[in-house]
Write a structure and sequence with these properties.
The protein is an alpha/beta fold. The chain is 43% helix and 15% strand. The longest helix is centred in the first third of the chain and has 28 residues.
């Protein structure tokens, strides 16, 4: 390189570095290190549709009083929610008839503008508020925000996040429970109290279906899929093949720790969730589950991939420069 070109390259590099440093400083000074979780008075309560009374939700800081909580985020899901609940309730009720199993379902209507809230309240009327509660968010928070508030209102020793579309067979919960037992050494169905103080997250996975999905997808969507997997591996989570499946089982302590620190409230929240878990050395298991694509998805492949790619890069950058931090708390006695 001749001298003028070297100088030009040096100046260009210096300008780029200055812009990047300025951007990082801007992020640091305008960002809360820990998430600010806003929740209105109305969102802290649930309605008993039989009596018309409103009741205060419990806290994840409380001791568990159910074996399992199922958190279902729902945004404009009036059509897909009923069949999902049919399968879910049939499975859980069959357990109740055979053992001393106890459960609750928390449907989080994420600012829905259709009949989702009416559908959820009808199921609440049918099952009763001890088994099904509706958390009605006043505005749309995003899937991550909805799941977080549902988790923080739950009573279970174990907590399951399940998508409202019913794409995963609910009976596959038994596979996740087996893996949870292997990770914690506790069978929570028999000894739920022994799960206190244990941390683990079991991730339902569609990775085994990848070859089949590639054969059915266009080249463009296949490139987007592999590109997303690469960015997840590069920036955030390593060792988990499918971060995005909406079927994840948590111990109560793992859910409390992770959702206390999660910042992302939209589609990439799963990635930050697992990133936090790995940083806290929470054991993560991954289990193959049955999965069927259900019509009505709110994701648009290209723009959703762009948004997720941007979120992944910003998650990595914010944690790297200390703009975001993870709460490390010991469970209260």
């Amino acid at each position: 390189m001749d001298l003028p070109f070297k100088l030009l390259f040096f100046y260009f590099s210096a300008i780029c570095m200055s812009i990047f440093l300025a951007f990082c400083i801007l992020i640091i000074v305008t960002t809360n290190q820990y998430p600010v979780i806003l929740r209105s008075k109305k969102e802290k309560e649930f309605l008993d549709p039989v009596t018309g009374n409103t009741i205060l939700f419990p806290s994840i800081e409380d001791k568990p009083s159910k074996k399992l909580s199922v958190i279902v985020p729902a945004y404009n899901e009036e059509n897909r929610l009923p069949p999902m609940l049919e399968e879910c309730v049939d499975f859980l009720e069959s357990r109740c008839k055979q053992t001393d199993f106890t459960y609750e379902i928390i449907i989080v209507s994420d600012g829905s503008s259709d009949g989702t809230l009416n559908v959820a309240n009808e199921w609440c009327r049918k099952l009763g508020v001890d088994k099904l509660r509706v958390l009605a968010l006043e505005t749309n928070r995003g899937k991550g925000g909805a799941v977080r508030l549902g988790m923080q209102s739950a009573r279970g020793a174990a907590l399951l996040f399940a998508d409202a579309d019913g794409a995963t067979k609910f009976s596959d919960l038994t596979k996740l429970e087996k893996c949870l037992w292997e990770k914690t050494g506790v069978d929570y169905l028999k000894n739920p109290d022994d799960l206190t103080g244990k941390t683990a997250i079991i991730v339902g996975s569609r990775a085994h279906l990848e070859k089949e999905s590639v054969a059915k997808r266009s080249l463009f969507r296949t490139i987007l899929m592999y590109g997303f997997h690469f960015l997840v591996w590069l920036f955030t989570v390593k060792g988990v093949k499918d971060t995005q499946c909406g079927f994840k089982l948590f111990t109560r302590d793992a859910a409390r720790l992770c959702f206390d620190s999660i910042h992302v409230e939209r589609w990439a929240f799963d990635v930050e969730l697992l990133y936090i878990a790995q940083k806290l050395n929470i054991p993560i298991g991954e289990v193959a589950v049955n999965w069927t694509e259900i019509e009505g998805s709110k994701l648009t492949p290209f723009w959703s991939s762009v948004q997720m790619g941007k979120d992944l890069g910003l998650i990595w950058l914010r944690y790297m420069i200390g703009a975001w931090k993870i709460k490390e708390r010991i469970k209260k006695d």
